[in-house]
Each structure stands twice: as structure tokens, then as C-alpha cells.
């Protein structure tokens, strides 16, 4: 980024330059670029760097000290030149040029001094490394891992990942001596995006960039770092509808920021028109016609066999009356499952991301709890705590088998013994079905319900599958 600037500057004043300054400047430029690129290559291959130093600690120190001496000389010369400019009384005709030269020299001086600083830092670590040269690198004691702070350039990221010791030197309520804020390793692969995300003015309003944030999360930079800026809110937030109205009514359009959605109001989301920007659950905002009957009346009935993949809430809850009280709905949707369960005195949190529509906003405006969660994360529940996990339109034929395994084991972890796993209308290609069923059988849950129904809209190539499974007690030590 710096190089073009400097060259542009060179290009602007060809005429009337005192040749000595020009030669000196070019010399300084070459030194600075040369050293800069050398340092950069060392910095970005941190591991190789330390290994090389270990293998041959002598070979690098001599050129370094030579470079350092040269840098000192160059800096001295430029400073002398600048001082001369300051002291001299320029003739009015040449004062414009003099001003340009001196600001150019000051610029070059800044570059060189920054190189000098990094070089001396580099040498310090170098000395540390060569001090431990008798130990094999792999046996060296592991350094306190502040490494992300070396990798990222944005100051706000470096601040975020630095381990923060507790004040007063005491353990905190979590029994730790400090706070170890984390960013996932995938953040490193998305350096550009993460730096864009963390590039803001502290205390100001954040950019309107939740989509960038969601992109980072979906691609594994999850959990995202916190930020010290204020998130954007809808311009005119009116209070939500009272709880007895909010469940089955489209919310006030003013309570959502629409700028990053294709639809600009809830009527558009609820309409039958296509092109709404999301595909799963296209009718989810149509509360009256589409959502209201769900889990109360079967929606899809195979006419040949007279079986449905839609279990009804009352029949599920009646298997264990009063026992199912809390749970998770991991689905794409607007929270209707949680809304219905609420009527049965069951508390459900709805995990979803905003795939092309304001799903989280909608769930919250209905008076339900949205959990903004990707599939990349371990569930934020302790082991053996939930009575129910329900999932629909989420785990489908796209999912990798190994990933499905990890997800199912994690759900099993969060479910309590005797809790239900309700796989609702999972669909996949016919030929994949047995592999997916195998993944579920692996759990060795008790089967309360287990149905496979042909799905007729895709040339009869797909099937629906639903199951209601119960986690067994595992009375082992
Ligand atoms: C926390 O600090 C205390 C006292 O300084 C120390 O004894 C303990 O080993 C530290 N624990 C950890 C996990 O660093
Ligand atoms: C909702 O948005 C659509 C386009 O997205 C627009 O045609 C329609 O007039 C809007 N309706 C209301 C009530 O604002
Ligand atoms: C289909 O099932 C319903 C209720 O489950 C029943 O009333 C109806 O008679 C069945 N129809 C056929 C053709 O089996
Ligand atoms: C839910 O709880 C309320 C009050 O605790 C009770 O009146 C109502 O009958 C319960 N509903 C169901 C479906 O159990």
C-alpha cells in the first residue's frame, strides 16, 4: 500500500530537484523497502522463522547488525537534511518545492524508523530464541499463547485476544486467574473479513454489517469477538405487541432493520410470491394459513399409504405427561413450534440464523426466545439437562455423515436421560436414507415413532423421515 504512494510522489516533481536529495531519497527508499520485505517474510512465517533461527542462529545476526548501522546512518543524514531546511530562509519562489521535499523526507524518515523499530524487536526475540538453542524446538516450554495477537494487525483484535488477568490478582467467579477470550481458528483463514468486522471506532455506532458477522460465523469464525461499538437498531422501534397478541400476529415493520433483506416488510415475507431471499420454510411468515395448523393437524399425508411424517404435539407430550418442560428447537423457522409448545406449558428456545429473512427478530417479536446459533458450535447447554430437542428442515440430505455424528452426539449430551429427540420431516434422497437411519440407530434410543414417507414433489426421488426417540439411561460408571 505504501509503495504506490511514494512512487506517485516521486512522479509529481521531476523538475528542479536538488540531485543530492533525490539520490539520498532513492537510497533511503531502497533500503526501507528491502528491509521491510525481509521483515515481512519473517513475520508471516513465524514458525519457520523460529526454526531457522534455531538451526542457524549466527547466520542472521551479522546482516541484521549491518542493516541496523546503515539504517542509523540514513536516518541521521535525513534528519540533518531536514534540519537544514528548517533553518534556512527559503526564497519565496522556491518555498513550495522546499515544503514538498521536506515533507517527502519526513515521510521516508517515518518509514525507515518503523523498520528500525521492528528490526530491534525482532532482534530481541531472536536473542531469546538463541538463548534456548540447546533445547529442541518441540521440547521448548510452550509460550503463553498470545499468538493471535501477533497474527492480526487490527489493534482491536489484538486487544481482544490478549489474555486479561483479573484485577486485584484474585480468581474470578469462574475459578480462573484471567479471562481467555477466544476466536475460532477459522477466523485466521478469514483474516480480511475479520479485520473488516473489527475495524470500527470505539464507542461509535457499528457498521450495518451483521451479514458480514453471520458470514464469519457460518464459515467457522464462531464465536465472534465482541465489539466496543453500538449495534444498529431500527430507526423507530415501537414497543412489541403484548404477549396475548404477539404470538399469532405479524409484528410491526418498524421493529426490524430491513436494509440487508430482500423483502422490506413482513407482508412481503408472508406473501406467496417467490424471490423472497430464502428458500427453506418459504411460508414460515404466513402465520394464519401455514403456521397455525402445524403440529396440531397433520400437514402432509401420503395418500397411498395414509401415513404422515407430521407428529402432533399433544400425542408426543402424552407419552410422558407433564415430564417434558424445557427444550430446544433447532430448525429454520419463525418459532411456531415454541409458540405452540408454550400453550402446553413447555418452554422452548428456538435456534436459528437469519438465512435471508429476519428469523431471529421475528421469533423475539412474537415473544419467544431466539438463540442465534450456527451448526458449527457445541450447544450452550450443560450435559443431561434438556427434556426435548426438536429439529425440522435443518438436518437434511445435505449434511455430511461425520458432521451428523458429531451433532447427534452433542445433542445426546445435552438431552437428559428419558428426554426426547424429535426428528421432524427429515428429507433426503431415497438411496441415502439407510445411511442416515444408521446414524440415528447408533444412538440406541428407544423408538416411540419411526416413519418413512415418500416425498412426491421431486420425481419420487426423495423421502421424508420422522422419528420420536427417547434417550436411554446409561447406568454405567
Ligand atoms: C492462579 O493464581 C494463583 C495465585 O497467584 C496460583 O497459585 C495458581 O496456580 C494460578 N492458577 C492458574 C490456573 O494459573
Ligand atoms: C411491502 O414491500 C413490498 C415490496 O417489498 C411493497 O411492494 C409493499 O408496498 C410493501 N407493503 C407495505 C404495507 O409497506
Ligand atoms: C386414514 O387415516 C385416518 C385417520 O388416521 C382414517 O380415519 C382413515 O379412514 C384412513 N384412510 C384410509 C384410506 O385408510
Ligand atoms: C398450563 O398451565 C396453566 C397454569 O399453570 C394451566 O392453567 C393450564 O391448564 C396448563 N395447560 C396445559 C395444556 O397443561
UniProtKB/TrEMBL annotation:
Transmembrane segments: 21-39
PANTHER family: S-ADENOSYL-L-METHIONINE-DEPENDENT METHYLTRANSFERASE SUPERFAMILY PROTEIN-RELATED, S-ADENOSYL-L-METHIONINE-DEPENDENT METHYLTRANSFERASES SUPERFAMILY PROTEIN
Organism for this UniProt entry: Prunus mume
InterPro entries: Prob_Methyltransferase (IPR053223), Put_SAM_MeTrfase (IPR004159), SAM-dependent_MTases_sf (IPR029063)
Predominant subcellular localization, coarse grouping: membrane
Gene3D superfamilies for this protein: Vaccinia Virus protein VP39
Claim: Transferase is one of the keywords in the record: yes
Gene assigned in the entry: LOC103332112
Name of the protein described by the UniProt record: Uncharacterized protein LOC103332112
Localisation: Endomembrane system; Membrane
Entry's family note: Belongs to the methyltransferase superfamily.
Keyword DNA damage in record: no
UniProt keyword list: Glycoprotein, Membrane, Methyltransferase, Signal-anchor, Transferase, Transmembrane, Transmembrane helix
Membrane topology, as annotated: Single-pass membrane protein; Single-pass type II membrane protein
Amino acid at each position: 500500500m505504501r509503495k504506490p504512494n511514494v512512487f506517485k510522489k516521486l512522479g509529481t516533481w521531476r523538475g528542479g530537484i536538488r540531485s543530492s536529495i533525490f539520490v539520498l531519497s532513492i537510497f533511503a527508499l531502497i533500503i526501507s523497502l528491502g528491509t521491510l520485505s525481509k521483515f515481512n517474510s519473517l513475520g508471516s512465517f513465524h514458525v519457520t522463522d523460529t526454526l531457522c533461527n534455531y538451526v542457524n542462529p549466527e547466520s542472521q545476526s551479522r546482516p541484521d547488525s549491518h542493516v541496523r548501522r546503515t539504517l542509523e546512518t540514513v536516518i541521521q543524514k535525513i534528519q540533518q537534511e531536514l534540519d537544514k531546511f528548517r533553518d534556512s530562509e527559503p526564497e519565496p519562489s522556491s518555498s513550495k518545492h522546499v515544503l514538498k521535499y521536506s515533507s517527502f523526507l519526513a515521510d521516508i524518515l517515518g518509514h525507515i524508523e518503523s523498520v528500525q523499530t521492528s528490526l530491534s524487536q525482532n532482534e530481541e526475540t531472536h536473542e531469546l530464541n538463541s538463548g534456548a538453542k540447546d533445547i529442541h524446538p518441540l521440547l521448548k516450554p510452550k509460550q503463553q499463547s498470545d499468538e493471535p495477537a501477533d497474527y492480526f494487525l487490527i489493534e482491536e483484535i489484538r486487544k481482544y485476544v490478549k489474555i486479561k488477568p483479573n484485577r486485584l490478582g484474585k480468581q474470578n467467579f469462574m475459578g480462573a486467574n484471567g479471562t481467555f477470550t477466544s476466536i475460532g481458528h477459522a477466523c485466521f483463514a478469514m483474516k480480511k473479513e475479520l479485520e473488516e468486522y473489527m475495524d470500527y471506532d470505539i464507542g461509535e455506532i457499528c457498521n450495518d454489517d451483521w451479514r458480514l458477522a453471520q458470514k464469519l460465523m457460518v464459515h467457522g469464525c464462531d464465536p465472534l469477538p465482541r465489539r466496543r461499538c453500538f449495534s444498529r437498531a431500527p430507526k423507530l422501534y415501537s414497543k412489541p405487541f403484548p404477549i396475548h397478541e404477539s404470538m399469532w400476529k405479524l409484528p410491526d415493520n418498524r421493529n426490524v432493520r430491513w436494509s440487508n433483506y430482500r423483502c422490506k416488510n413482513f407482508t412481503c415475507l408472508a406473501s406467496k410470491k417467490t424471490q423472497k431471499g430464502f428458500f427453506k420454510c418459504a411460508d414460515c411468515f404466513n402465520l394464519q394459513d401455514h403456521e397455525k395448523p402445524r403440529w396440531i393437524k397433520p400437514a402432509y399425508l401420503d395418500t397411498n399409504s395414509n401415513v404422515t411424517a407430521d407428529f402432533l404435539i399433544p400425542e408426543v407430550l402424552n407419552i410422558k405427561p407433564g415430564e417434558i418442560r424445557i427444550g430446544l428447537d433447532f430448525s429454520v423457522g419463525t418459532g411456531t413450534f415454541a409458540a405452540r409448545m408454550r400453550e402446553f406449558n413447555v418452554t422452548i428456545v428456538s435456534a436459528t440464523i437469519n438465512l435471508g429473512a429476519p428469523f431471529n427478530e421475528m421469533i423475539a417479536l412474537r415473544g419467544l426466545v431466539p438463540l442465534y446459533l450456527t451448526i458449527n458450535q457445541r450447544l450452550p447447554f450443560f450435559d443431561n439437562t434438556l427434556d426435548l430437542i426438536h429439529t425440522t428442515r435443518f438436518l437434511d440430505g445435505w449434511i455430511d455423515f461425520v458432521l451428523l455424528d458429531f451433532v447427534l452426539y452433542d445433542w445426546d449430551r445435552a438431552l437428559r436421560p428419558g428426554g426426547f429427540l424429535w426428528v421432524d420431516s427429515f428429507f433426503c434422497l431415497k438411496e441415502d436414507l439407510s445411511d442416515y437411519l444408521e446414524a440415528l440407530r447408533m444412538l440406541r434410543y428407544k423408538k416411540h415413532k419411526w416413519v418413512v414417507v415418500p416425498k412426491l414433489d421431486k420425481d419420487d426421488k426423495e423421502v421424508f423421515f420422522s422419528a420420536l426417540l427417547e434417550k436411554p439411561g446409561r447406568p454405567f460408571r
